[in-house]
Fold this protein.
Amino acid sequence: MKSAHILLVEDNDGDIMLTTEALQERKLINRLSIAKNGKEALDFVFQQGKYADESLPDLILLDVNLPLKNGHEVLKIIKNDERTKKIPVIMLTTSSAKRDIELSYQNHANCYITKPVEMDAFLAAINTIEDFWIQLVKLPSAEPS
Amino acid sequence: MKSFFEAYRNAIYRHNLADSDAVSGSVTYWRNLLFANTLIYVIPFSLIALLPSIVFCLNNRLYLLAGIDFVAFGLCLYLAFFPGLSVLVRKLILILSTYAIALVMLIHVGAEGPGLLFIYASTVFALLILPRTFAYHWSWLNIVICLGFAGILHYDLSPVDDVNQFDAGIWLLISSNLMFLSLLCSALIPKLFDGLAETVDKLESKNSELERFTYVASHDLQEPLRMVTSFLKQLEKKYAGQLDAKAHQYIHFAVDGAERMKWIIQDLLEYARSDQDYKSLERVDINELVEDFRLSRKKQMSSVGANIISDPLPILHINKTPFSQILNNLLDNALKYSKKNVAPNIRIRVSGERDFWEFCVEDNGIGIESDYFDKIFEIFQRLHARNDYSGTGIGLAIVKKNVELLGGQVWVESVLGEGSRFYFTLPKS
């Protein structure tokens, strides 16, 4: 059973709770960090400010609609920086807008998932993310290269 | 008799309303419609003046005038029944023909003839059917004609002696009234259209604002709703052991309410959205749409033993999305409002003899009372309790909206307890 450090970037407290509980269903994650806006997410990833002692996450779950800096901007910055661009970023958002999907892949998101509205489907989606990205896929080392 | 008039009218519309620049409902469209209607009525009514006029001309050897009358009438027939030429050119042909008649009347019949009247009539029609950029041109033309005819009277230039007897000075006095009236009309009639144009613009922007509002509101409402439904379900799942039956019932009603709200919001979104897919026309085989429906509702249909038979349906050049919405909503209703223990038999018919397609979706379901024939097409109006038949009551409102947007009409015939026939038409164009 592998484990991983996931950074969840999400501004809605309710969604944070739902996603956290779903991720912890099967105990595959050994560490879950939360950032509630774009700036916090970047501070975390670049180990700035209050996150100076943090380690790089293995996987990032990124919402699109965030205050301060939206998901697209965060994605662009992460994927353009030598230290962080190797981290897989999964867009996890309510938006199904074609524009959002296109833009995300343009900025090198690893994949784009529209949050299912139904609770059961949402749970299944989180399980699938874990099965694929943590169990099946090999992730790069978390050490800065 | 009625169908002869309809055929006559449709021919004139077909040749004179095809201008694709005129968006339906805009001021240009109404001007063009006025022009087409002018042709419709001028042709028969002008005979009242034309026939006596031609008899008079032939008796008085005014062959030029008789000739001009024939030519003008012939041009009207051409405009009515032959295609080609832009709408602007057609309108100018009509106006300039009446001006030509007016001029010949002045020169060959004189100041006491109907010349002045024809000039005034031409001016008013020109101001009504031609764009406002030409508004003052007609007044200047009239002034030129009046002064010109004064010159003709003064220098005895008319080929008819009696005409030249009329005093030029008195003519100027009389015709100054025409000049005054035509300037007045040039100033005022465009203002009427300006007012109309402004109102149409305001209404259009109000409408699109409302649609955007509905879309945005529905979209934004989905998120908090998701929170309500998700956490209620989590509560149910994780605290199942600690909740008594009553608590479960409370949660059940809350979840059910949230579910219903979700359906209403989704339906509202669909209702608001249905206008946005009007851009692309494609070649659609209606038979395939029916087959798609059969496939997607296979489970539901086999569980009640339903079947759908259809006449051979046409292949149309239309917007696929709105047409599918119309067909699917009508078929879904036919399935839903069926009698208990009676297999739904649905029949789709089409007839296309006249210049529109008429579709009919017939079922053997529970039927509708005639009192409610109009109400059912209103948004969120239902005739049954939610427990008896599911749904938010938006299906037929979407059907009506789409049919009308495609240029057709929808109505129902039904007998309570026996079944219903939903008809809708689509113009063939």
Q: What stands out?
A: Residues 168-238 of chain B form the longest helix (71 residues).
